[in-house]
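User: C-alpha cells for this one?
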Amino acid sequence: MNATEPRRRWWPRSVRARAALAAASTAAVILVGIGWWVHHDVYRQGTQIAEEQAESKVWSLGAQLRQGAVPDIAGGTLPYEVVASGRRSAVTYGGGMEGLDPGTRHVLPAPSETRDPGLLTIRPFHIPERRHDSIKDRLGLAGGTYMVMYADIGADQLSSDKVASLGVAADAKLRVYVVVLPHTAEKITEITDRVLLRAGLVSLVLIAAAAYFTVRIALRPVEAIRVLTASVTASDPRERVTVPAAGHEITALATTINTTLQRLDNAAAQQRRFVADAAHELRSPLTTLLASLEVALAYPERTDWPATATTAARQTRRLQALAEDLLLLARLDTRTPIAGPDTVDLTALASRLTEQYPLAERPLTLTCDSTAPAHAHGDPDEYERLLRNLIDNAARHAAHRIQITVRNQDAWVVLTVHDDGPGVPTEDAERIFERFVRLDDARSRDHGGTGLGLAIARDLAHRHRGTLTLAPRTLGACFQLRLPRAPAPAEK
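Assistant:
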C-alpha cells in the first residue's frame, strides 16, 4: 500500500451509518439479554409444568392403587412404574417404561422402608440399559439420568382383597415412580429460540434502517447550514443560516453559527475601519512632513531651515508614536490574558509617575492619594503604560488639576484618574474607548493625541483580568481601573 494512502478503517465515516450501526449494536445487546432471559424462563416454566404433570400423575396412580385397581399398562403419556418390596417385577408400568421390560424386573429400585404416604419426593435416577430386544424404547430413556418423582404406599393400609388384586404381599411396601420428562420443556424452548432469533434479526434490520433514515432526516438542516457556511468568505461574511422553527439542537446550532458569523462580520468591519483610520492618521503627518520638505527644497534660499527641521522632527515623532501604538495594539490583539508571577505595587507606581510626569507646557497640579500599598499581578511595564496613557489623556483635558487615587476594596484594587476638564457626554462614555476616536476633533491633531491611548489602556486592563470604565462625575472625567488584588510579597 502507498505510504501516503490513508489507512482504511472498518468504522464507517458517515454519521448516518455510524448511528445505524450504534443503534443496531445496542439493540443487539438488549435483544441478546432479553433472549437469554426468555430462554431460561421458558425452560423453567416448561420444567415446572412437567413437574406439575408428574405430581398429578403420582397422586392419580396412588389413588387407583388404594382402590385396589391396577392402572392400565398401555395408558398414560408420562413414564411411570409401581414397584413393591419382595417382588422382582413391577406391579404396573406405562407411558413408555414398557420399552425397558419392567415386567421381567422392575427398572427403578424397590423401597426398603415405607415413607409418609403424604410425602412427595423428587430426585435424579439413572435408567439402566437393559431394553428387551422385542420392545422398542420409544422415549430413549435407557442410559439416561432423569428427575423422578415418587411417593410410597404401605400395603398394610389396604384391605386383603385390594392387596390380593395388586398381587403383592400383605406386608409389602409400594412405591409409585413417575419420570419427569424434559423433552417438552426442551422442545418448547427450542421453538421459542428459533422464533426469537428470527424476530431479533428482523428487528435489528428495522432498527438500523429506522436509525439511518431518522438521522438522515435530522441532519438535513445541518447539511443546509454546511452548504451556506461554505459560501462565507473573509471579504463577505454577511451570509446567515436559516434558523429552524422547531426548538431543538439544530436551532441552537444555527443560532450559534449566526452569532459567530455576526462576530466575524463585526471583526472584519472593525478591521477595515482600523486600517482606514490608521491610513488616515498616517497620511496627516506624512503630508505635513512632505509638504514642508518640498517647499524647503523648492525655495532653499528663502527657507527657515531650523523651523523646517523642527516641523519635520515633530511630525516624525508623531509617526513614531503612532507606529508604536499600532504595533502594541497588534500585539495585544494576539496575546492571551495573563496573571504573571510579578507583583506590582500600584500605589508606588502611581506615586512615581506623579513625581516624574512633565507638566511644563501648562500649569497643572498632579497629585496622588493613597492609604496603603495596593498589589496586583502582572507586567510592571504594561501597568506603567496603562497609567501613563490615562494621565496623558487627563493632561490634555484638565483645566487645573489631576487627581489619582488608589484604594483596596475587598478582592479588588481600584485606581481612579480624575481631571477637572469639560468631561465626557454620557452617550460617548463607551465610544471614547474605541480606536482613533477623538471627541475634540476641532482641535489640532498635533495636540489631540492619536486616539489610541484609551483603547490601549482598556486592552491592557482586560489583559490583566481587570476593567477600565468611565465613572459618572458632575465635574470632569473620572476613569476607574479595577484589578484583582494580589497578596503582598511578604504575605505569601
